[in-house]
Amino acid sequence: MAEYAGPTFVRAMQPNGTISSICRRCLRTVANRPDDIDLRKLEDAHTCRDLRVSGMYYPDTPKDAQD
Fold first, then answer.
1. 47 to 1, 15, 42, 51: CA distances (angstroms)
2. Strand blocks (E) in 1-67
3. How far apart are CA 58 and CA 29, in angstroms?
């Protein structure tokens, strides 16, 4: 069985020049920052609040944990 590696993040450049970091597991925006280094620190500190959102599917979460 694979070991839990924690959430991964998607980053998107915003029109105002900042970078948004979005958690792929809980779909929350972690932060908007102008610097990649600041985002890494905030991503490392992020914890997902609730993985069991009704109607959502998380491909990297075991199926029994989603019910």
1. 22, 27, 10, 10
2. 9-13, 19-23, 29-33
3. 16
